[in-house]
Amino acid sequence: MREILFVALGGALGAVTRYGVGLAAARALGKGFPWGTLIVNVVGCFVMGIVLEIIADLESHTPEAFTPGIRGQLEFWHKAVAIGFLGGLTTFSSFGGDTMREIYGGQVSVALANVAANVILSLAAVWCGLALAATLD
To answer: For the segment 72-118, what is each residue's pLDDT rounded down to a tens digit?
Structure first.
């Protein structure tokens, strides 16, 4: 239950932050380009890089040093921040983290396939959704 609460609260904060950034960007930079989306994607990916390093550091503790405090920190950073807040802010951060994990793991072809599949299939899905919705009008 605690994990679900972490994800839910982090997700709510991320979604509200995304909305606020979108409004602020439109006011400050205009509506001619989706600045808000670009900002949350870039900032979210940057923060995801920091969070993944923090998680890796916490996971690197020896079993003897893996205290309840470290377990709680790991749960917070993973569930509340990475999945919840960054997931609510932008799923692009998960995409970036997944892709970089493959690159760091020596799986460059898997990383490139992930990029191609996500971009092409996601855009195709939006197009299909638009086409379907247009037929239902």
So the answer is: 888 899 999 999 999 999 988 989 999 999 999 999 999 999 999 99
Neighbours of 64 (CB within 10 A): 6
What pTM did the predictor assign?
0.81
**What is the sign of the dihedral through the CA atoms of 30, 34, 36 and 38?**
negative
The ranges assigned to domains in the chain are: 2-90
Q: Is the separation of the CB atoms in 9 and 79 below 8 Å?
A: no
Decide: 96 and 46 in contact? Cβ < 8 Å: no
- Alpha carbon distance 89, 69 (integer Å): 27
* Distance of alpha carbon 19 from alpha carbon 83, whole angstroms: 18
